[in-house]
Amino acid sequence: MTGTPPGSPLRVGLVGYGLAGSVFHAPLIAATEGLTLDTVVTSNAERQEQARTEHPGVRVAATPDELFEHAEDLDLIVVASPNRTHVPLATTALKSGLPVVVDKPVAGTAAEARELAALADERGLLLSVFQNRRWDNDFLTLRRLLAEGELGDVWRFESRFERWRPQPKGGWRESGDPAEIGGLLYDLGSHVVDQALVLFGPATSVYAEADIRRPGAETDDDTFIALTHAGGVRSHLHVSATTAQLGPRFRVLGSQAGYVKYGLDPQEAALRDGRRPGPGWGTEPESLWGRIGSGESPLTGGGRPLRTLPGDYPAYYAAIAAALRDGAPNPVTALEAAAALDVLEAARRSARDGVTVTL
Description:
Layout: E1 10-15, H1 19-30, E2 35-41, H2 45-54, E3 59-61, H3 64-69, E4 76-79, H4 86-95, E5 100-103, H5 110-123, E6 127-130, H6 137-147, E7 154-162, H7 188-200, E8 203-211, E9 222-229, E10 234-240, E11 250-254, E12 258-261, H8 267-272, E13 290-293, E14 304-306, H9 314-326, H10 334-353, E15 357-358
Parallel strand pairs: 1-2, 1-4, 2-3, 4-5, 5-6, 7-10
Antiparallel strand pairs: 7-11, 8-9, 8-15, 9-10, 11-12, 12-13, 13-14
């Protein structure tokens, strides 16, 4: 930690002001008590002006080097730049004596993630990974159901993060260059795999199918991952940009009941629309609640509506502030992210070679 006086907000440097930086990180940092957005790094003139407009008084740097030149003025670095930059920027930040939050995926390989974790431990610094969808409304609701035993013994977990984007958008996220760490397996797959591991524990085997469906696409845009967990639960995870009819976000089947939930958590859409955390944040209308219970009706699915808990992305940065100020637990460790990368690497191998991979 730097010389920020006790009681003063911790000063945050944010690298990257694209989708991740401008829509997720900057608004959540600005809304967190005990944190202040000090500096934004972007070389894009329009994004520089956007940052100044959206966060009056923020300093703007064109390059990460400019940011690190005044590292002593900062208390935390957030890396929200393209995936290929995550490891080098996090390494530089840690070697500069600064705690780091890195957007997912923290690295391209589990080995790199563990090397970063070791460096952070060696320096006595926080290294956290932004897995915001641990604070999705449906995920929080499901965690409560599992904690209360409402479903009995869970047998199967189905999770879908699907979109209908028949035309590729381009950019590094859809690049076929392996150095970019693009494609849905590492993008949306990072979310669904992380959620499955948090809910049901380590995976012992991985099977995957990854396809490039759209004309002009360069990397996977329709991917399926099947996990067998050490506890016996089977997870079926779908990520796709080619889904003309969307399936349920979650379908969880247990020995006593099932839970089915359609629709995405509303927080991303709210942030994209310029709304900010406050009263009523993360709530959804009753029409979008999931259903819990049992039944065989092909029309209703059986069961009863279940109120969805509010989503809570602000909880992530509140936990970061508490970890830095008070030594509270790291909300998402690099070793947890490495375990998810073990699965993603196995999934890539499985899809490529047509085999089931044992972990």
